[in-house]
Amino acid sequence: MLHFLIKDRRLLSASLFLMLCFILLLTAGCSSSNNRSYETWGSKHDSNSEKVQAMWIKDNSNNSSKVYASNQAQEALSAFEGGLYQMGQLDIKPSDYTITMKQDGGDVTFSLWIKGTGGMFTDSSDDSGYYQFTTEGEDSVREIMEQAGFPISRQ
What we know:
Blueprint: H1 2-34, H2 41-44, E1 52-59, E2 64-69, H3 70-81, E3 84-87, E4 97-103, E5 108-113, E6 120-123, E7 126-132, H4 135-147
Antiparallel strand pairs: 1-2, 1-4, 3-7, 4-5, 5-6, 6-7
């Protein structure tokens, strides 16, 4: 009888161990897949607004463009830093605007979908997803665009 109890305990211990391993693997897999959804453009890229020398804005609907000095470009780059990363590709109309930041170490080009609501952008160096503007970031970009002569409606 004692031999039977020892076998059951070993079986019980092995079962509990396997169940614990399964739960740990399951939770580890879930947490690693969700971490990317909390990444921001600023956390994925080495952004330093002080490196920005100029900003080129292009309205893709009529190909008009303007170049701006570093102070407005630095403010605009700060607006992009908080954009939340979203996996997947945008399968929508062509972008409304293109903004290129001239900076030390290479240019950064953003494509913006900002007309109407739900501002989004992509970074030409990162083709694995897109970014959703924060409310503050979108408001800041809209203000910069309006000052630049590109008024953007929210409709």
